[in-house]
Structures are given as structure tokens and as C-alpha cells.
């Protein structure tokens, strides 16, 4: 068994730079109040509080509370709420401010719903203020079904977006937390879903420090996240929800985490049933508790009484866990008749006009324009489409009128949905005809179970023949990619078998290309799809990746297609040409993975995305030397909009160390800025010394001697991006002597 943890009142300031002395003292007092409550509890009462559905203890004024709630991209599974774009689509915005606004709305609606539910005596699942979000795992392989829940493949982008989301969800520094965030799944978790209950993810010290752990560390030390959830799998032999290395040595000792640790749901039983690291349930419970887990999603921790009686877990360790849990509820102001400013938030804020406006902006910033070329004899790119009286637009595809393709997984219920078809119909008005067809089933042969297959192709062909332009809305939805047990695909328990369009979609797309009409491809998916044929076809002059853009996503896509909104999103993931170029799915080494280590050329690279305008960037640095300890270098960037429309531009800074075995380059800073047509905007970036660091095989960071290049542009400095954009980023040279 792991060493027993000692009970002590935590020092909330330790390891968390976001705290000041006043907030630390306030939090210290809350832990003391919690400890006093624990001292008044019986053993059975303490144990009862360590499972997600914690019962009331009336004699102490403690209400029943269920810790399990979800808010990945809006309050989920609890009725009506604002349904934002899926996390991977929010990541495409490259906009930390927007993530903060989204989290503000989620916390506001969570409080509004909680206030009503509590007054009604409703303490059911999905009714609390402890939201198990964000998912900060790294989307290392595009076949992973739950990658849609993440902020993509890059640890720096993930860290920046997660920190903003967590801070705003928790109230952005207010004395009483507005809601409680949870960074999950700790750690080294990204498939395969079918084996997650038994899988051992092997990761080197370098990959841990460089890729898999930075976002969790930022969540703890910068955002002050109140909760961390363990993963189902083992990491380097230890089950993550019972790992002394992860939960004690890394999370608490190295990073100074003071919140509570929750197990993933029913993960503790995996210890003895699948991982086989313990012999029975009681021993599994003891391993989880002794290793640092405080709260059990499930009911296995109810066996803690037996574990204590057998001497496997000390009551002192149990006291520490319950103290943390009660302190969390005190921080939220929801224990023992506490009151706070958040109690007055009315239910009417839920899916309000103001919140819908944030959702619309998020949806517009989630759509990535991948391709935009002229068609036929035209002299300008096909998008945005120019509407003309008497024009006919064909809108076809299994996702053209699909609500499921808007929302992804872990979703709430919107008061209204706008599909792509509906969005286009609303905008074009009566002078433009819109024809439509399902084209094909999402993944089966034929839309009718009694058909011989391909039963909508003739209809779609008629639509294409009678249209001036065809918009094909293809891709996936959460029934094909997602969590093991939730996704219903026949391939891999939520994971994708490859990167191809499923079912008849590819054949149907190629048929449309023979119609003689321009085909605009809109991909809706939570992951990369290898649309190599369409990317190279002159018959498909434009491609958009819309991710899962939320309840208003169809309207946002229509606005971009028709020029009422300007695309500004960038890919948070790499679009590969095929799955054959990827390492084995079960190999957790980062070699050959993501933009930093891939050996081939991407179809569409990480950080790439087109606009309807053009920009010119210039940059200069305050020094040509790598900064010293505690110092930084300032890079001044000048962004000019040389086009004819106002737009948003994302400036990206990548650092390359000219050393063997170093990443190609790594994202180290970014900012999104609005620039009016013909105008210029100045930005200043500060790169600290550690932006130039590399990681050695022992997981230690160092600054090598030699040359570095900082690339400043609107994409990464790879050859594919340069060809697609027709320009290269600015290069600034630095040296370390």
C-alpha cells in the first residue's frame, strides 16, 4: 500500500501564484471550519461524504449534495442551457478572452439553475456546482473519440485556454467561488477507449514533462483549479486514480495542489477487475484513498469503513479527504445556510439574449476556412458566395440538417437549434431557392433499412443539376466518435478506425464533383478527417472545418459562407493525409505525432486557417540574446489589414532550437486582435527565458547553447502552411552563449 497521508490544514497559497495573502488567509479559515465539522462526524458520516452522491447530515446542517455535474461547453445534462461549440471548436478560436466569456456564462447559468433546484429540494445528479471540466488531455492521435472534448494537440494552447476557462468558471478571484472547475483526466489519457479500463500508457519522463503534464500544472499553479480528476488507465504501471507518483509526488508535493482529487466514474473497481494491481475491492479502495483520491465517483468508497477497521486506511487520512470536500462546499458558499452574491442570480439568465450573443460569437470564431479558390473561369475565390436573384443553392449531406452534428458530446439542451440548412434558408431570403437532400446516411449503406443502399444519390444528383452551387455538409457526430459506452459506432468503442469519411460519404462527394457545379465542402466533426481527394480537386474550390459548432453553429456557418461573418479560426489539431502515417494508436511516445514531431507533411497544419482578407506582419525584438534567469525578451509586432473587410487575426509565435532531437518548433505565444480594413494594430509579446527551453530525457528543462529562431506569423513555419498561404512568417534570430 502507498504511504498514509498525514492530516493537516492545507496552506492554500503553496504552489499557487494566483493567490494573495488575504485570499490565502480566508481559505485557511474555511479549511479550519471544515476540519471542525469533520471532528463532529461519526466514522459512517465521514465515509458517506466520500462518494459523489453525498447524503445529508441534518444534525450538522449539511444538505445532500451530488458532486457529479458536467459543463464542457455549457451546463450539460440538466435541461435547457446555452449550448456552446464543443471544446475542440472553442480551441479553434485561439481566443483566451472568448473562453473566459464562455466560462462566465456557464457559471452564471449553473448558479441560476442551482438556486432553483436547491430551493425545490432537488439534489440529484447534474444539479450541483462542481463541474467536471475542462478536459485538458492532449489530443495526440486523431483516432481518439474523446479528442473532441479537448483543446487540441498542443500543450501551450491547451494551457492558455484552460487557465482562462477555469479562472472565469470559478469566479475570477471573487471570495466565494461561482462554480468549481475540475481538470481531467490526470494523466496521460487519450485512448484507446476500448481498453481504457485495463490499458497501461507508457510515457517517457520527457514526454510527461513536455507534453502530457503542462496543462495540468498550469491549471493548478496559475488558475487555482479546485479539483483534479484521475484517469481510468494506468500510467507507467500505476492506475491513475491510485498513483502515488501522480497524485502525491507530482500533484501535491511538486505543484502544491490544495484542492480535492476525484476518481473517474467507477475507475476504482478497475484496480482489481482489470488492472489487477489489487486483489479485491477493499484493497482497491485503500490504494485509491492512500494514494491521494478524496472523492469517489461511484459507491466503492463506502467500503472505507472496512478498510479502516482492517488498518488499511487510517481515519486520519479519511479526515483529510472529507475536510477537503467540505472546504470545497464552503468555498462555494453552499454549506450550513451560507449565503453569497451568487444566490440572487435569477433563472431567467439561462439561455438569455446576452448569453446567446456570446454563443453566436463563439460559433463564428470556431469555423476554420481550409481552402478557398476560384472556380472555373472566375478570378476570385468562391467564398464568400455572392447572392443573385433567381440563384439556386443546393445544400446536401447527412449533417446538413442535423442537430446532433452541432453539439458533440457532453452537451446540454438548447432552447433552439440552427442547422446549416436552416441557417442558409434564413439568410438568403425568398429571391434565392434552396434545394436539399440527405445525400447519404452518416455511416450506413442507405438511409432506409429496406433500401439496396445509396438511396438518396439520385435525389442529390437532381439537386446538384438544378443548383448553381452545391454545399455538401459531411463528417461525423458524437454517435461515431466519443466516449466508450456512449458512442454507438461499430468500429472502436468511440474511437475511429481511420481518418476517412465513413459510409458512403466519400463516394457521394466524388459523385457531386462530376455534376459540373462547384462543390463547397463543410466538415462537421470533432477530429481531423483526411479529405485529401477534395483538397486536391478543382471541383471542390472551398473547404470549411466547423467542428461541432454549438446550437447556433448552422447559422454561423451560413454567415461565413455568405459573407456576413469573416472566418478567423485556426486549426488546434493537425489534419493528416491518412492514418497510415500515424504511429500505433497505443504508442504514447510523441515521436511522429503532432506538428512538433510529425515526419510527413500535413494536409492542413496545426495553426492554419484562412480569412476573407489579407494581413501583413512585421516584427522586431528588444534583444537578440536569449534572456537570462528572471528576464524576458519583448517582441513588438505590427499587424496591417491589407484587405477590404474588417477581420480578426491570430498572431502566433513559435520558437525553434537548432538542436538535434528538439521539436521542429513549438508554440510559445499567441494573441487574437481585431483589425479594421486598411488599418494597423500593434502588439507586444513577452517571451520569458523558459520559452527557449528544451526538455531532456530525465524530464528536466534546460537552455542549450547555440541558435534559436522565433517565427512570428499567422501560422506555423512549415512548408505546407507557406504554400497554402503564399507567405512565410517573420524570422527573428536569438543566441545563447
Account of the 3D structure:
It is a single chain. The chain is an alpha/beta fold and 737 residues long. It folds into 3 domains: 21-343, TIM Barrel (Alpha-Beta Barrel); 358-580, 3-Layer(aba) Sandwich (Rossmann fold), CATH 3.40.50.1700; 615-736, Sandwich (Immunoglobulin-like). Helices cover 28% and strands 16% of the residues. The strands form 7 sheets. It has a 6-stranded mixed β-sheet with strand order 9-14-13-12-10-11, sandwiched between helices. Strand 17 (647-657) and strand 18 (666-675) form a beta hairpin. The longest helix has 24 residues, at 96-119. The model is unreliable at 1-19 (pLDDT under 50).
Shape: globular
CATH topology of the largest domain: TIM Barrel
Estimate the strand proportion: 15-25%
CATH-scheme architecture of the largest domain:
Alpha-Beta Barrel
Distance between the termini: 48 Å
Whole-number radius of gyration?
26 Å
- The domain count comes to 3
Architecture blueprint of SSEs:
Blueprint: H1 21-39, H2 43-48, E1 53-54, E2 65-66, H3 87-92, H4 96-119, H5 155-169, E3 182-186, E4 200-201, H6 205-212, H7 214-221, E5 227-230, E6 234-235, E7 238-239, H8 244-254, E8 260-262, H9 270-273, H10 281-291, H11 304-309, H12 315-332, H13 353-364, E9 368-372, E10 392-396, H14 404-407, H15 420-428, E11 433-437, H16 457-465, E12 469-475, H17 505-513, E13 519-524, H18 532-536, E14 542-545, H19 553-561, H20 594-597, E15 615-621, E16 632-641, E17 647-657, E18 666-675, E19 680-688, E20 694-695, E21 701-702, E22 706-713, H21 719-725, E23 730-736
Parallel strand pairs: 3-5, 4-6, 5-8, 10-11, 10-12, 12-13, 13-14
Antiparallel strand pairs: 1-2, 6-7, 9-14, 15-16, 16-19, 17-18, 17-22, 20-21, 22-23
Helix pairs in contact: 1-12, 4-5, 4-13, 5-7, 13-19, 15-19
Amino acid at each position: 500500500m502507498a504511504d498514509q497521508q498525514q492530516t493537516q490544514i492545507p496552506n492554500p497559497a503553496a504552489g499557487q501564484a494566483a493567490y494573495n495573502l488575504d485570499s490565502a488567509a480566508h481559505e485557511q479559515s474555511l479549511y479550519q471550519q471544515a476540519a471542525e465539522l469533520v471532528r463532529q462526524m461519526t466514522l459512517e458520516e465521514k465515509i458517506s461524504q466520500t462518494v459523489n452522491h453525498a447524503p445529508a447530515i441534518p444534525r450538522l446542517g449539511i444538505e445532500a449534495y451530488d458532486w457529479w455535474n458536467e459543463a464542457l461547453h455549457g451546463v450539460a445534462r440538466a435541461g435547457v442551457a446555452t449550448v456552446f461549440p464543443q471544446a475542440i471548436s472553442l480551441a479553434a478560436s485561439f481566443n483566451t478572452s472568448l473562453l473566459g466569456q464562455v466560462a462566465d456564462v456557464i457559471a452564471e447559468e449553473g448558479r441560476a439553475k442551482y438556486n432553483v433546484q436547491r430551493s425545490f429540494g432537488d439534489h440529484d445528479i447534474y444539479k450541483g456546482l462542481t463541474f467536471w471540466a475542462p478536459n485538458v488531455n492532449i489530443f495526440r492521435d486523431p483516432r481518439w473519440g474523446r479528442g473532441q472534448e479537448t483543446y487540441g494537440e498542443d500543450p501551450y494552447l491547451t494551457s492558455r485556454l484552460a487557465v482562462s476557462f477555469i479562472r472565469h468558471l470559478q469566479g475570477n478571484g471573487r471570495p466565494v467561488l461561482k462554480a468549481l472547475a475540475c481538470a481531467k483526466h490526470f494523466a496521460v489519457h487519450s485512448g484507446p477507449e476500448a481498453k481504457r479500463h485495463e490499458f497501461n500508457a507508457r510515457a517517457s519522463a520527457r514526454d510527461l514533462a513536455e507534453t502530457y503534464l503542462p496543462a495540468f500544472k498550469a491549471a493548478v499553479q496559475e488558475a487555482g483549479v479546485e479539483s483534479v480528476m484521475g484517469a481510468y488507465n494506468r500510467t507507467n504501471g500505476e492506475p491513475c486514480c491510485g498513483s502515488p507518483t501522480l497524485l502525491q509526488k507530482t500533484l501535491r508535493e511538486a505543484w502544491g495542489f490544495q484542492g480535492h482529487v476525484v476518481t473517474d466514474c467507477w475507475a476504482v473497481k478497475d484496480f482489481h477487475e482489470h488492472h489487477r494491481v489489487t486483489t479485491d475491492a477493499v484493497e482497491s479502495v485503500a490504494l485509491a484513498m492512500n494514494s491521494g483520491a478524496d472523492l469517489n465517483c461511484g459507491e466503492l468508497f463506502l467500503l472505507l469503513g472496512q478498510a479502516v477497521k482492517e488498518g488499511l486506511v487510517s481515519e486520519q487520512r479519511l479526515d483529510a479527504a472529507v475536510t477537503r470536500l467540505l472546504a470545497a462546499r464552503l468555498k462555494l458558499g453552499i454549506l450550513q445556510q451560507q449565503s453569497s452574491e451568487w444566490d440572487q442570480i435569477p433563472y431567467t439568465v439561462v439561455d438569455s439574449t446576452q448569453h446567446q450573443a456570446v454563443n453566436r460569437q463563439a460559433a463564428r470564431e470556431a469555423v476554420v476556412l481550409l481552402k478557398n479558390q476560384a472556380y472555373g473561369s472566375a478570378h476570385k475565390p468562391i467564398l464568400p458566395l455572392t447572392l443573385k436573384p433567381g440563384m439556386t443553392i443546393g445544400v446536401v449531406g447527412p449533417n446538413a440538417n442535423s442537430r446532433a452534428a452541432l453539439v458533440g458530446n457532453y452537451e446540454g439542451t438548447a432552447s433552439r437549434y440552427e442547422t446549416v440548412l436552416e441557417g442558409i434558408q434564413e439568410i438568403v431570403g425568398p429571391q434565392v431557392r434552396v434545394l436539399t437532400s440527405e445525400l447519404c446516411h452518416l455511416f450506413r449503406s442507405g438511409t432506409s433499412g429496406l433500401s439496396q443502399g445509396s438511396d438518396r444519390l439520385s435525389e442529390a444528383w437532381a439537386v446538384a443539376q438544378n443548383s448553381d452551387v452545391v454545399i455538401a455538409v459531411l463528417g461525423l457526430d458524437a454517435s461515431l466518435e466519443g466516449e466508450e459506452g456512449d458512442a454507438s459506432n461499430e468500429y472502436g468503442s468511440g474511437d475511429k478506425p481511420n481518418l476517412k469519411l465513413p459510409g458512403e460519404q466519400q463516394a457521394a462527394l466524388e459523385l457531386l464533383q462530376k455534376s459540373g457545379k462547384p462543390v463547397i465542402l463543410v466538415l462537421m466533426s470533432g477530429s481531423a478527417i483526411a479529405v485529401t481527394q477534395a483538397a486536391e480537386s478543382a471541383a471542390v474550390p472551398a473547404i470549411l472545418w466547423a467542428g461541432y459548432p454549438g446550437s447556433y453553429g448552422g447559422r454561423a456557418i451560413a454567415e461565413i459562407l455568405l459573407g456576413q461573418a469573416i472566418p478567423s479560426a485556426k486549426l488546434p489539431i493537425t489534419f493528416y493525409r491518412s492514418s497510415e502515417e500515424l504511429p500505433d494508436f497505443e504508442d504514447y511516445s510523441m515521436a511522429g505525432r503532432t506538428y512538433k514531431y510529425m515526419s510527413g507533411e500535413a494536409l492542413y497544419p496545426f495553426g492554419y486557417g484562412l480569412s476573407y482578407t489579407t494581413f501583413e506582419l512585421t516584427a522586431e525584438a528588444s534583444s537578440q540574446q536569449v534572456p537570462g534567469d528572471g528576464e524576458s525578451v519583448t517582441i513588438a509586432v505590427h499587424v496591417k489589414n491589407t484587405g477590404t473587410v474588417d477581420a480578426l487575426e491570430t498572431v502566433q509565435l513559435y520558437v525553434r532550437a537548432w538542436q538535434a532531437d528538439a521539436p521542429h518548433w513549438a508554440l510559445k505565444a499567441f494573441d487574437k486582435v481585431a483589425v479594421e480594413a486598411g488599418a494597423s494594430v500593434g502588439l507586444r509579446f513577452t517571451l520569458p527565458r523558459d520559452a527557449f527551453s528544451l526538455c531532456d530525457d530525465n524530464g528536466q528543462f534546460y537552455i542549450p547553447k547555440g541558435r534559436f529562431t522565433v517565427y512570428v506569423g499567422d501560422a506555423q513555419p512549415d512548408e505546407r502552411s507557406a504554400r497554402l498561404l503564399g507567405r512565410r512568417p517573420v524570422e527573428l534570430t536569438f543566441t545563447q552563449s
